[in-house]
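Lest this sound abstract, we think one record worth quoting, the chain in one-letter code, the fold tokenised, each line plainly labelled:

>
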Amino acid sequence: MIFPELDKAESMAQPPVVAPNPQDLAYLVRNYVHYDNLATGLYRQTVNARKVRDDFESKILTNLRSSNMENAIIQIAGGRLSVHEERHNTPITLGRMEELLRAYFTSHNLPDDTQNIMKYMKKQRGYEVVKRLKKQSGPPPQPLPPAPTGSMG
């Protein structure tokens, strides 16, 4: 073997197949639930922070506009703020695609084949099926009854 480390790395990359340990599953589930709850909380915080930030941005822009200072550059710690325009393209949804096709056929005096094109695109649209865990709210699980003790007889 010229590179024994590579052969060793390949064998380490594939763990041996062993029977599942219920404690391992419990550990994985606890961690999944913990990080799912963490991700949910961070998502909510992010949504709220963006809303508050957008409200402040709107108030700043209104203030600058009313003061006729839209070209002002505001010095802040670590940089500066300036007003600029952003262009956002409208998403091309199937409904929007249908509108555009109808307009195209009308503007070019062609027979409107929009319905057939839309049917074709919907049939050809691909999808992917992925297995995921789905967390459902509900009462906590009931504790297991104690194991029977003593001998029978």
